[in-house]
Each structure stands twice: as structure tokens, then as C-alpha cells.
């Protein structure tokens, strides 16, 4: 079997889908994208496919090594994201060729279902926290939490702050805590809560807020500081009893090495950024040696999520899976239109049952993808500023 051609599709609001075809009529799909840099990643995919066209797609590791290491210059978020999507599509082809799901090729499933969590409102729009009354913020969080719980989800995550100053005010600190307290009081202790700091906290601010949040028994706090400061993660971990998670902006085993040694509880590689299924699987195995679970980052589309799930089913030290597709019981929203059949992603009671279809376990609706690609997108992240007009972290 040989790879014959590929196509890329820009799908709103910020996705990039890749289709790889073979001379045996078997097609593989991947999602090679870095949010806000889809066009750049697409160019990288185009160049990297020079190493794949005309080759045997079943030689996944051989092709991965050539793409990752054979160009002299290596690594980084763009190249690793491009390789990630190609890698996903190759695993999809291999599974379909052999008639088995990808998790079978990774050693077989170690669990029968995968737990997912949902996002709730708050922290996504800086102006909302700046101009709305605290009661309005809390009302939106609770309303969103109710929607997710009605879908059967038992774990929720959100960003509890706006863009923060390096050392912010007492009022800002107290409002963050009040938001979390309100949600905890509303949902009770049977629902797990996770906070995404999104790198908005300085090392100093993170250490100030941690003690105030500890009584709320969070599942984890995600990315408390920017990835540039991973060498200082031991300071973060030692300053709180709350489990710490990070990794969505780390792209290889080498970049995870220091944070795994720091004592984090949860590693969050992104299967569309960190070298695909191949490298994410290796990151997970490395994390296991440090008693660290993985909770793959996935604020992307159904192909990326399906790739994550294949890893999740076969990974002993998996904890929980992120998704933004509105999954749960009755997941028939607009984001499902890119699948012929969305039932494999049905998540009654907050769990996706073992996926058994060959490859990534989903059937992409190519007609819907092509229609969306006629519109395309040029998505960019919001631009936030501090009170003095300088750049603030989104």
C-alpha cells in the first residue's frame, strides 16, 4: 500500500482537517492544527508530506522519525502540530487496513469507558469580568454548570479569572475565590471541579491564590503559570496540596521531562500538537514512571478528540479527557455535523464507551467538511491588555 495524495480543509471556527488517501482506497483523517496558526501549520504539512507521498503508510514510526528528525531543524509547536495530524491519519489508515481500532494497535484497551469533562462559562471574555457585577458572573457559571450536569457530566472546568496583573488586587483575589465557592456550593461534592489558570498567574500570584482555594477540594489546577517557567514548577507544586496539571503548551518528551520531575499530578499533552498519537503515547509512558496521570488537552474538533480517545483507552495512567463539542447524553449539536454517525461519542453519565470501529473509530462526513472548507476561517485569539495598556495573557 502506498500514500497517493492528501488534502487539507480549513473548518470554522479554528480547525484544520487532513485527509490522506492510498492506492488501496483506504483513507485516513487527522487534525493538524495550532489554534490561531492554521495556515502556518498547513504549509508545514504540505512540506512534510513530501516524506510520506509514495511511501507505505503502515510504517508509521519510520515516517514519524523521518518527519521529526530528518530535516536537520526539528521541534517546535508548528512542526510538531503538523506531524501530529499526519501521524493521526496514518494510525487511522493502519487501523482500517487491519480492521481494528487504533487502541488495539497500542496494546489493547485497559478500560471499558473514558470519562470526559465539560467547560462552563466564565473567564473566556475578559470584559465580562471587568464590567459585570460579581453576581452576574456567578449566575452565568451556575447556569452553564447546570447545562453540563444535565448532559450527565460529573466533572467541570473553567478559567476563574480575567487577565491578571503580575501582582493583582485583594478584590481580584477575593472575587476569584467567591466564584469557585459559589460553583462548589451549587454542584456539591460529587461533582469534580477543575480550574484552568491559562498561564495568567505569575509565580507570585499563583502562590497567593493556592491556599485560598485548597478548602474547595479541586480535582486539579491547570497551567498556573506560563510554560516558559516550567523549570520553576517545583515551587508551584510544593506551595499547595491541590493537584497541579500542565502540558498543553509542551510538545515533546524532552519538554515534559522537567515538569514530570517537579511533582505535578497530571500531564496534559495535546494529541494535535505534541507529535500525534505516537509521541503522546510515549509521553504517557514516561509520565507513568513519575506516578503522573495524563488528561489530554483537546479544545479542538472530532478528529482530534477521537485520536485522544484511542490513546485514553490504551493508557493505564489516564485520568480524564477534555472536549469542547458539547458531549454528554444527546450530543447532537452543530459541531457533530462533521461525522456521519456521532453515536460513538455519546457520553451517557459522562463516559464514552469503548470505541470499536476500525481506525480512529469515527466516520468523517466528507461532504460536510468540504462545504465548511468553502468558507474556511482565519481565526485569531483575542487581544487582551492590562489596565495600563500593556499585553495581558489570554
Secondary structure elements and pairings:
Layout: E1 3-11, E2 15-22, E3 27-30, H1 38-48, H2 60-69, H3 77-98, H4 102-105, E4 113-119, H5 126-131, H6 134-150, E5 155-158, H7 170-187, E6 192-196, H8 203-213, E7 220-222, H9 233-238, E8 244-246, H10 253-262, E9 266-267, H11 276-288, E10 293-294, H12 302-314, E11 321-322, E12 351-353, H13 366-375, E13 384-385, E14 391-392
Parallel strand pairs: 4-5, 4-11, 5-6, 6-7, 7-8, 8-9, 9-10
Antiparallel strand pairs: 1-2, 2-3, 4-12, 13-14
Largest sheet: 9 strands, mixed
Strand content: 5-15%
**Kindly state the mean pLDDT as a whole number?**
94
Shape: globular
CATH class of the largest domain: Alpha Beta
Write the element-wise H/E pattern from the N-terminal end onward. EEEHHHHEHHEHEHEHEHEHEHEEHEE
Class per helix and strand makeup: alpha/beta
Assembly of the depicted chains: single chain
- Head-to-tail CA distance between termini: 45 Å
Number of domains: 2
The DSSP helix count reads: 13
E-strand count: 14
CATH topology of the largest domain: TIM Barrel
CATH level-four homologous superfamily name of the largest domain: Enolase-like C-terminal domain
In the CATH classification, which architecture of the largest domain applies? Alpha-Beta Barrel
Give the C-alpha Rg.
21 Å
Low-confidence segments, ≥5 residues, pLDDT <50?
A: 123-129
In short:
One of its GO terms (molecular function) is lyase activity. Keywords: Lyase. It is built from 13 helices and 14 strands.
